[in-house]
Design a protein that fits this description.
The chain is α/β, with parallel strands linked by helices. 39% of the residues lie in helices and 11% in strands. The longest helix has 11 residues. The protein starts with a helix and ends with a helix.
Length: 119
């Protein structure tokens, strides 16, 4: 927090996904207050969030084609987030990941649905 207040940073990178939300308490509000851009890392929980089965009906309700897209869109739908960087070794995943970066963004109810599905 002191480093962000120092004025030396234009961006901050934080882990954010439905299981890692600590940054929502202090870092995201401070970054917004100071005009510091936010980069989200680990939006897929280093792959741990991908080990669950999500019903097709839920994906349709969210307007996405995959659970990966739901998780990425969950993060980028937070107005305090500027960019989400999922890690992948598979070039085939790039298109699917990029599709999550298109509006419409999730509203509060859709974000809560993703959180319940990830629980």
């Amino acid at each position: 927090m002191a480093a962000l207040r120092s004025g030396r940073f234009d961006t901050v990178q934080v882990p954010l996904n439905p299981h890692e939300r600590e940054c929502e308490q202090e870092i995201l509000p401070l970054a917004t207050e100071l005009g510091i851009a936010v980069i989200v890392m680990r939006p897929l929980g280093e792959g741990t969030l991908l080990r669950r089965s999500v019903p097709e009906e839920a994906l349709a309700q969210l307007g996405v084609e995959s659970w990966v897209q739901a998780l990425l869109k969950w993060a980028i739908s937070d107005e305090r987030v500027d960019v989400v960087i999922p890690a992948t070794r598979n070039p085939g995943h790039v298109g699917e990941n990029a599709a999550a970066g298109k509006p419409p963004w999730f509203d509060a109810e859709q974000r809560r649905l993703v959180e319940r599905l990830a629980a």
